[in-house]
Recover the amino acids of this structure.
C-alpha cells in the first residue's frame, strides 16, 4: 500500500507475487523496513565493542522500543533490554496498575495483537518466550486493560476499529470484519447462538488465510486468542474454538 502511494496510486495492497523485493516501487526491487530497524543500523555498524549485542536474552539480542498504554500509572515509550519480565515492565517502568486494580487482560503487539491474562506477568519479554506464551512482540505495543472493562466490550471496541479501517478491496476482510462485528454485538445483547460462534470462528480463519494484506490477515488475532484465554465467554451451547 505504501509503495502504491509513492507511485501516485490508491494506497491499497496488491496481489502477491511478485513480492516487493523483486518488483516494488516503479517495478524495481525495493526494501522496506520500519523506522526503528533503520535507526539501529549506524549503532550496529559503529558498535565495535559489542555493547548492543551484549544486551538481551537468548535469541532476542539487543534492545526494543515498547509502548505501554491503557490502565497504568505511567504510560509511555520505553527502551528495554530483551529479557525483562512483563511484571518488571508494567510495575517498575509503567508504575503499576491504576488504583491497584486487577489486570483483566494485556494485548501485545498492537491492535491486531493477541491477548493474555495476568498469568503472563513473569514471562520474559523476548520473541521466543512471548511466542511460547501465546502472544507476540509485534509492534512492541502493550495495552493494559483493568477489571473495569469486560473482555467482550474490549473485543467489540477492537472489532469496531478493524471494521472501520478495512479498505474494502478484498471480500474476506470487508465482509468478515462486518459479520464478526454483528456476532459480537449479538453476544453483548445475549442473542448469539452456538451456530453464530461457529460461523465467527470460520470467518476468522478464512480471513487469516485469504485476505490481501496484513490488516485482514491479522485482524482476528485478538478474537482467536481470547477464545483460548477466556473460553467460557464463548461457551454458548457448548460452542468453543
Amino acid at each position: 500500500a505504501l509503495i502504491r502511494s509513492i507511485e501516485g496510486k490508491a494506497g491499497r495492497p496488491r496481489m502477491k507475487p511478485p513480492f516487493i523485493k523483486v518488483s516494488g516501487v516503479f517495478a524495481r526491487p525495493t526494501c522496506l523496513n520500519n523506522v526503528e530497524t533503520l535507526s539501529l543500523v549506524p549503532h550496529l555498524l559503529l558498535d565495535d565493542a559489542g555493547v548492543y549485542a551484549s544486551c538481551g536474552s537468548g535469541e532476542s539480542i539487543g534492545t526494543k522500543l515498547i509502548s505501554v498504554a491503557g490502565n497504568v500509572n505511567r504510560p509511555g515509550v520505553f527502551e528495554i533490554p530483551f529479557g525483562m519480565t512483563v511484571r518488571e515492565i508494567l510495575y517498575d517502568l509503567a508504575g503499576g496498575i491504576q488504583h491497584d486494580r486487577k489486570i483483566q487482560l494485556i494485548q501485545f503487539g498492537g491492535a491486531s495483537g493477541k491477548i493474555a491474562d495476568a498469568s503472563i506477568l513473569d514471562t520474559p519479554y523476548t520473541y521466543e518466550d512471548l511466542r511460547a506464551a501465546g502472544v507476540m512482540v509485534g509492534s512492541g505495543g502493550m495495552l493494559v486493560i483493568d477489571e473495569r472493562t469486560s473482555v467482550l466490550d474490549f473485543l467489540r471496541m477492537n472489532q469496531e476499529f478493524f471494521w472501520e479501517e478495512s479498505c474494502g478491496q478484498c471480500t474476506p476482510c470487508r465482509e468478515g470484519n462486518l459479520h464478526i462485528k454483528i456476532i459480537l454485538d449479538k453476544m453483548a445483547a445475549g442473542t448469539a447462538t452456538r451456530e453464530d460462534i461457529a460461523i465467527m470462528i470460520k470467518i476468522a480463519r478464512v480471513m487469516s488465510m485469504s485476505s490481501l494484506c496484513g490488516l485482514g490477515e491479522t485482524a482476528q488475532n485478538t478474537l482467536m486468542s481470547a477464545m483460548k484465554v477466556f473460553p467460557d465467554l464463548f461457551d454458548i451451547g457448548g460452542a468453543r474454538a
In short: DSSP finds nine helices and seven strands in the chain. The two ends are 32 Å apart (CA to CA).
